[in-house]
Backbone:
């Protein structure tokens, strides 16, 4: 079967793209690239210290894809319809010379380059990243309160410095900066409205994320999830909201705007209102394994073909084949039966 077909009409850049389409008709539009499995935080919902402690073995340098290898995968993906790559991790700003990779990716025609970071090193790097061609940045920040921040992220890092990173990114032209807050019942849910108040009118877009059962190490329980509609109702009581349309197909956040003109806020409802039907994302781990779902247990190794001489055409063919048989829709199937299934860790493929 030919894994690609012409898309109907034109895409949002006006160019006819030969897009890969999966078994449910979902095009391949986004590629998330993890550039490292290491992190300087130990968020309890992602890399709990009991598992990711001093004895944990991270990937050795030679098993991690080089910038040249990543750029080759990105070029092959772009020719299959990918329009946005998002650099992630672990913590992507720990990867040396990241602006060099950003420049290589920004040089691929039709590709927007975005980054998700915990913000701890952003103040120092924002300008160089923007100058290299970074288009957008998302900063994770779960609470404005240092004590609660520490409970969520298990890092002795002042919130003030993350806020400085957000401001530095905006000054460097990376606005609107998106700010992601994972909400956990009984830990930071009571500070959600305060976060909304802080970013209301700031020009940054706060998005609340439902705590997900990614990986197998975070001890996730459904009781820990605060349904987004609860947070929405709490914010709406203080700062009235109205729903707005998604900006594009596959946008993960449900968007709202403040009725007083104070900007936007979003809700990522992966648990209570899954959005698999519009999921256009593939994920590449730091060691070069391609996953077609955040909750996948296995992926397709691209490093071996990359290191045995495959070029862009061979990679394109391989990626297209993998995407053409994709049937993932984990969040729509989430149930008691899926709870015990093996799946990849979030810090390995980057969310
Ligand atoms: N280290 C970077 C950061 O924290 O932004 C990038 C990687 S992190 C894995 C990407 C995103 O996944 C972050 O916004 C983080 O809050 C989110 N995340 C991690 N574990 C999660 C979970 N169990 N449920 C929901 N979101 C999660
Ligand atoms: Fe690190 Fe990001 Fe995972 Fe937190 S969510 S442990 S900052 S990779
Ligand atoms: Fe996409 Fe898998 Fe998440 Fe569904 S569960 S939205 S298919 S990554």
Residues:
């Amino acid at each position: 079967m030919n894994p690609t077909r012409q898309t109907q009409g034109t895409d949002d850049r006006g160019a006819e793209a030969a897009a890969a389409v999966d078994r449910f008709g979902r095009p391949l539009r986004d590629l998330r690239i993890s550039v490292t499995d290491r992190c300087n935080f130990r968020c309890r919902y992602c890399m709990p210290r009991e598992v990711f402690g001093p004895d944990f073995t991270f990937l050795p340098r030679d098993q991690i894809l080089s910038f040249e290898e990543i750029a080759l995968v990105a070029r092959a993906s772009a020719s299959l319809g990918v329009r946005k790559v998002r650099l992630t991790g672990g913590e992507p700003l720990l990867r040396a010379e990241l602006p060099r990779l950003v420049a290589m990716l920004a040089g691929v025609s039709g590709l927007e380059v975005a980054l998700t970071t915990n913000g701890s090193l952003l103040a120092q790097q924002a300008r160089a990243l923007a100058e290299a061609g970074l288009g957008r940045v998302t900063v994770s920040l779960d609470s404005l309160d240092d004590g609660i921040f520490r409970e969520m992220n298990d890092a002795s890092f002042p919130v003030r410095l993350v806020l400085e990173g957000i401001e530095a990114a905006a000054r460097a032209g990376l606005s609107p900066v998106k700010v992601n807050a994972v909400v956990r019942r009984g830990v930071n849910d009571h500070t959600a409205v305060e976060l909304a108040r802080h970013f209301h009118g700031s020009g940054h877009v706060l998005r609340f994320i439902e705590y997900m059962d990614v990986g197998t190490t975070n001890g996730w329980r459904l009781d820990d999830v605060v349904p987004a509609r609860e947070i929405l109702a709490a914010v709406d009581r203080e700062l009235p909201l109205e729903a707005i349309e998604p900006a594009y197909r596959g946008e993960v956040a449900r968007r709202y705007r403040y009725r007083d003109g104070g900007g936007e806020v979003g809700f990522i409802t992966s648990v209570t209102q899954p959005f698999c039907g519009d999921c256009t994302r593939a994920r590449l781990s730091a060691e070069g394994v391609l996953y077609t779902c955040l909750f996948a247990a296995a992926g397709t190794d691209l490093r071996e073909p990359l290191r045995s001489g495959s070029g862009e055409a061979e990679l394109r063919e391989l990626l297209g084949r993998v995407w053409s048989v994709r049937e993932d829709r984990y969040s729509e199937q989430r149930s008691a039966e899926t709870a015990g299934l093996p799946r990849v860790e979030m810090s390995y493929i980057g969310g």
In short: Residues 39, 45-46, 88-89, 91, 116-118, 140, 180, 182, 209, 211-212, 214, 218, 346-347, 350-351 surround S-adenosylmethionine (ligand 1) (CB under 6 Å). Residues 159-171 form the longest helix (13 residues).
